[in-house]
Amino acid sequence: MTPYISEPTKELPQVTVASPLHLPQLKGELQAFNEQQARAFEGIEEANELIFERAGFMDALLTQIWQQLGLGAVNDLSLVAVGGYGRGELHPKSDIDLLILSRDLLADSTQSAISEFITLLWDLRLEVGQSVRTVDDCIHLGLEDITIATNLIESRLICGNNTVFVELKHRLHKSDFWPSQTFFRAKRDEQKERHSHYLDNGYSLEPDIKSNPGGLRDLHTIYWVARRHFGAANLLEMTVENYLTQEEYRELSECQNFLWKIRFALHLVTKRADNRLLFDFQSDVASKLGFEGKGYEAVETMMKEFYRTIRRVSELNEMLLQHFEESILGHDEAESQDIDEHFQLKGKLINLKTPGLFFHQPESILDLFLHMADNPQIKGVYATTLREIRESRRRLTYWLQDFPACRSKFIALLKHPRGMGRPLTLMHKYGILASYIPEWSKILGQMQFDLFHAYTVDEHTHRLIKYIYRYPTEKSRKVHPICGEIFPTIKQPELLFLGAIFHDIAKGRRGDHSELGAVDAKEFCLMHDFSEKEAELVSWLVKNHLVMSVTAQRRDIQDPEVVSEFAAIVKTKERLNNLLLLTVADICATNDDVWNSWKGALLKDLYYQTLHYIQQGHEQPVSVRSIIRQNKQAALDKLLSKAFCHSTIENLWRRFKADYFLRHTPAQIAWHCEYIIQHNNEPKPLVLISKNASRGGTEIFVYSKDDHSLFATVVTELTNKNLNIHDATILTSKDGYTLDTFVVLEPDGSPVAVDRTQQIKPAIVKALVDPQAQVKRIPRMSRQMRQFSVKTQVNFLPDRNRRTELELTAFDAPGLLAKISEIFQQANLVLHNAKITTIGEQVEDLFILTTQENQALDKAQQVSLKFALDQALDNAPGKT
Known about the structure:
Its EC number is 2.7.7.59, 3.1.4.-. Its cofactor is Mg(2+). By secondary structure, the protein is α+β, with helices and mostly antiparallel strands. Among the domains are: 156 residues, Beta Polymerase, domain 2 (2-Layer Sandwich), CATH 3.30.460.10; 151 residues, Nucleotidyltransferases  domain 2 (Four Helix Bundle (Hemerythrin (Met), subunit A), Up-down Bundle); 58 residues; 89 residues, Alpha-Beta Plaits (2-Layer Sandwich). 53% of the residues lie in helices and 11% in strands. The strands form three sheets. Strands 9, 10, 11, 12, 13, 14, 15, 16 and 17 form a nine-stranded antiparallel sheet that branches. A four-stranded mixed sheet has the order 3-2-1-4, sandwiched between helices. A hairpin with a 7-residue loop joins strand 11 and strand 12. Helix 25 runs antiparallel to helix 26 and helix 31 crosses helix 34. The two termini are 47 Å apart.
């Protein structure tokens, strides 16, 4: 067996298996071998010997079974390993891909023996993938499918007739079977498609070791192309052809071995053929690989090494495929055009003409990216130039920011209209940002142990910058219209980009990352000759980058005091504009599913309320009475236009408290009142569901005779319907009727479909009419959620207007809100408002409560409520 990067370091062991065939004995032999390999894996430096050993054991096992079933006596019949097994690469749970090859169609007796052979392998619980084909079948199917062709190209004879196998190999090497140019294009396109499936990003927090960009498949692609075109048995031969340096070959070997070790350990842990390094397994895999530390330290260390490895593989893969493209497709004669004395445009790639320049003049590295910003035709970096970047990056003994010439060019790039586009992405991809900013190097591959973030800290920040950069585009303006309007008005977008670069740069350190990052940001700005005022703005953005999100999602922004307090932090329109742009991008960059129209509506409302407050002047408080008066007049006009009697409206409104008119828009008030008047106090509850998204979500309005269990009943029914509640306004009329509004979204963040409302509305009415008959369906907890626990935290904010604000952080267990509402009910408390925010595996909710006497909770009541919540929620599913 010849591994595709390096030779095995010692002879493969001779393996004997049970004879004659006896299933229990064979299982015992296999189990003993598996246990021996598991023991041998502990503490090893390299995994390749075990992988080759496993393939050798399997060869011996299959050969003996093959022979004892009489298949070895069949003329022109071969047992062939294909795929990874064909390369001699076999992990504990890898598929054993077999080709049973014949020259002609098989006799019935032979087919029966083959069926017995495969059945026995299944009985041994082996992960077998098999095909029975003639040589002609192989060629025909291989020509139709690049995957089949690739498997055949790396085929290896295990036992049987060598002549028929040689015939297959001969036909595979003919020029009409996937000519090298066609094969190269197909494998290149296959890789592009696979990368696009992962959004060209290998830095997800639950990566796929095999298929991720920079994973084992990228190494396979290099090997497949080298073997098909150059006939190379392994990549060591490519050093002779000068496609690889000896150092790069050793680097590929190191990367392969590390990825092999992780995959081997993952298979031992999962006991199945799964290449996804899920949260469930990361701790056990790290332990098997010998990583140590408290808490998440072992996993952090392992994952940083993993991300470093896939970056190295990605760079080498890109470089080698460029070289292969030139050699195979003849693109080495691409037209060259000088850019300046040191750089040229070669096709669509930028190329360094002066070898060694990056090391001797480090600022020239920044020139490369400035040229890319100046010329949008440049799509990437030429292979030899990428090699120069890699070599100079490794030889640097200082930070690039330490040199004045580098600093001036970095700021020029930061201020360039296209600087934060492709140039910034490639600076991040090729490790130049980490060579420039010392703090950035510390967050490379930094894990985030929650279900809110999907990417490492550095990749999250990179994505955040890209969101800001794309605000002016038509696509972004459709999703974030307010950001599209504000961004062009920003006088110094470079300060916003700096705030983005530094907003999470202190994660992973002890202390508040916002506070620490603010200090780093200010020092960086002053070092780069920004004014004190400019540095203060960047530092302020970093320090407060979470404030707007928290205020909008976890505070009662209908309360003028909340807006007043937020405006007092922001103070200026310049800060407000920058903070909004940073906040939206930060939310969007966490993962692909977190943004929804509800969050957009909250931020928009907070922005305009704050802007109004700032423009009025801080000394002029917002008049609650004027807001109520305006809302009532606008709602009245709408109702009168529909021919409702003025006196009827006035009589209805006399029953409502002022809070109702403060917390609803004129459109909501008119909508509610139209149906309440028509309802005419019927005994059955009135339930309204908005047809169109309102405030980014679907509104459900409940008007009914008040009952202490009503909130819990509605919450339970909405949970039964798999709806996520994001906001609840709980109001009662003076004569004891509820005026409750719930804002709900589907699990994917979209408003409720119109056809679903036909099921939801009668279900709520039925539950309210007979709460005792209601069935509580607790949704199943997801696989990911089971890996996390969140300590329940109950915090009481200062009382406002004789009301108690309770801030709750807890594990987002299924049915959580229904359980909380029951606790409020048992404590005989009145819930007036709820803000429901889910961040990954935890909720961060705000509840506004009073006693039945409409008073804030006293100290004793707060202590009692806290105890009840702690007791109930710390016993929730998922707790450890």
